[in-house]
Amino acid sequence: MTERSVLVLLGPPGAGKGTQADRLSKSVGIAHVSTGDLFRGHLSANSSLGRAAKGYMESGQLVPDDLVIDMLFDRVSKPDCEKGYLLDGFPRTVAQAQALERRIAPPWRQRAIEIAVPDEVLVARISGRRTCPKCNASFHTVSLPPAKPDVCDACGGALVQRADDQADVVRKRLSVYREQTAPVSVFYSQRGLLTRVDGNLPPDRVFEAILGWAQNKKAG
Ligand code: AMP
Fold it and tell me: Domain range for residue 151?
């Protein structure tokens, strides 16, 4: 029986989950599923789910569990997730972690890794973040500036700051993380499924640690 892995990437907003998940999914060839990206897709399409999620997202709160879980399970039923997938931004509550656990039966198994970063580093990182709405490339005003200010190196699109990356919303997202999402790390740790990596190291070192974890089938 071939093992099929659900790799769960945990960490506060600004820990670098999106960037690392993108690199990892390309490197090991599994689908990268980001619930934040799925919601942003629904917002731009102005779908009913997008309209339901908008207020929560713009104020830095979590979208209700039932909406997130339905959207996620629908996404991971697609053929590109048949052999395994990498979750970025899910689960964000213990109820979401429990729903995922109920869905996973052998040969499937799950493992989680947490990218740990001190709070004071996070606000600075997030408020400098810029993304390209056309091709989804990400930049940072200090650590990864584009060649021309506010212009995407990859496609020439105009870079934007996500509404929820502004400082006051970032602080709200961090307090939501501490209250609702930190217990998810405890959930995986109690099951012996959690590995922690220091997210304050240079991004390449963080990536090496995550890649090692993803390739070690026996890691807990
Ligand atoms: P992200 O890009 O992962 O930071 O997600 C952006 C926003 O989408 C979050 O601040 C939430 O409002 C919403 N969101 C994304 N994933 C989830 C989730 N698993 N549970 C609840 N809300 C979520």
Answer: 5-30+83-214
